[in-house]
Amino acid sequence: MLRVELARRSCHAYRLRQSGCPAWSAGVGCPRGALCCPPPGRLPCCPGAARGLSEGSCPAPGASIVKPLDGVKILDLTRVLAGPFATMNLGDLGAEVIKVEKPGVGDDTRSWGPPFVGTESAYFLSVNRNKKSIAVNMKNPKGAKIIKQLAALCDVFVENYVPGKLTAMGLGYEDINKIAPQIVYCSITGYGQTGPKCQQAGYDSIAAAVSGLLHITGTEGGEPVRPGVAMTDLATGLYAYGAIMAALIQRQKTGKGMHLDCSLMASQVACLSHIASNFLNCQIEAQRWGTGHASIVPYQAFKTKDGYIVVGAGNDQQFATVCKILNLSKISHDPRYKNNQQRVLNRKELIGILSARFLEEETTKWLELFEGSGVPYGPINSMKQVFTDPQVLHNGLIMEMNHPTVGKIAVPGSAIKCSQFEVSKPKPPPLLGQHTVDVLKGTLGYRDDDIQELLSSGVVAGHKLM
């Protein structure tokens, strides 16, 4: 611990603070944004501070390894899916996430059901673990003041309001940046902060339609089909998650925060990948292929005697193997199917031959025959089959926790595995306003009588556990 203390005292930030720097006294960090002058509690020169640890949390040499975002505070003003998905993933990596909700109703998804688990929406439970909930009326000046006070103590501010709405409350990026120049302020919208559509509300299905996803999703020649989960929302959440992580690394280099502009439209257009490239470079308009692929044949689902199997032949050798398994080796030598380019040109005839053969056996039989072949394959699983799959269980993709009112719940686990820590022992999704009093008192230092006045006036709302 002596080494840690010496490192602190040699840090320029420490000397600034001890000398009575006005910015430090105001609790907002150095207006110059110098690397060694972050907000109070952030000491880059002391061991461990580069990982976002608060003052006094720097581990001594040989201490147990912390999660990457331990000590990082996230102020989460998001609702529904894209934003909550991003902040949940940050929480899995150790960040303290303070979720701000509207008193009385909370996040929209609290009412999205059925199904409900007791009184809790299964939808809400799916993307809000590892968070604290405070219920604050931000339209009230006293409520907006609470948000500003929290922002001054936080590293990241995430919101998904229509551009201009938070600015009207004094909580836009420019407002927050004045009191918290260290803040990474991430805005998630439907169409971005500027432009002809920026004031339109962002909904997954609409953004998926406008961005072309629904144009390419559905059966060949059929109606457009919405993906079974909100992939545009989820992709945006992942882009925001990655951008926030990058901005935190950038802040270590510059001492300054930044404004991140993430949108559903931008995320989905970026995810059009090769479909977009086909059009931009070759002027080939996209179409729907069902489970098939525009540029690889065969690469799709085939109906079996009792279900479906998905098979993909990404090269000529794999196609030859598929033909061998199907006892159709002869067609692998047919000039019409000798390479992928020819197979794409003669897709209809080839798929007809393969489809007829797959119909002759049950799915389990085909799975046995393809096992160990080197060809990508798999069944189309129901949810019951997914969550009894041995690999899903092995990868720990079912995360269980005890909810304060409904008991044991389970949600999909984290998609990543790290060698030095585990995303384990998650905190259950919070009740609306469950942590309001704790945050006001423990984080902001409010007195009991002040908290009671805020509760009585409806500026904030709490939730007492029985």
Automatic annotation (TrEMBL):
It holds the Pfam family CoA_transf_3. InterPro entries: CoA-transferase_III_domain (IPR050483), CoA-Trfase_fam_III (IPR003673), CoA-Trfase_III_dom_1_sf (IPR023606). Gene3D superfamilies: Crotonobetainyl-coa:carnitine coa-transferase, domain 1. It comes from the Eukaryota. Keywords: Transferase. Belongs to the CoA-transferase III family. This is Succinyl-CoA:glutarate CoA-transferase isoform X1. The gene is SUGCT.
